Amino acid sequence: MINIYAVTVDALKSLGYPVREQGTYAPTDTLPETFATYQIIDSPNNSAADNLPTSQTTRVQVNLYSRDPEIKQVADDLLKSVMIPAGFLRAGGRDLPFSLQTGHYGYTCDYRFYDSI
Fold first, then answer.
1. What is the pLDDT of residue 44?
2. Per the structure, how many domains does the chain have?
3. CA–CA separation, 34 vs 19, rounded Å?
4. Sign of the four-CA dihedral 53, 84, 12, 69
């Protein structure tokens, strides 16, 4: 079975920005100018044989935040450029509200990863 955390982090790190699991920055942390986060949403077993799972599809939500609005405007293409070659399928994305507190724009997108066990 594949380590979905490692595959996700490796793909996102290739963007050249810091990568962290969603929610791991403390309120007192100084956020980077641009950074990516990820979160495993669900990972149900899709099929089974002899009462054992044979495949699993994991849904991963990835986010790209930046104080530069131009990076947010191309975030979908940036994320696709690293997630799809890593074996993920895009499941849809959307802009996130601008954060007045941090000055970051954001974009989020769900990806699915199929793993045959």
1. 64
2. 1
3. 10
4. negative
Nearest to 85 by CA among 3, 12, 6: 12
The size of the chain, in residues, is: 117
Q: Is 57 exposed, middle or buried (0-12, 13-18, 19+ CB in 10 A)?
A: middle
pTM: 0.88
The beta-carbon contacts of 18-24 under 8 Å, at least 24 apart in sequence, are 22/61, 22/63
Whether 21 has a pLDDT exceeding 70, the answer reads yes
SS3 75: helix
Round to whole Å and give the CA distance between 12 and 6: 10
- Alpha carbon distance 58, 71 (integer Å): 27
CATH of the domain at 69: 3.30.2000.10
Which residues does residue 63 pair with via DSSP β-bridges, in sequence order?
A: 37, 108
CB 98 within 8 Å of CB 104: yes
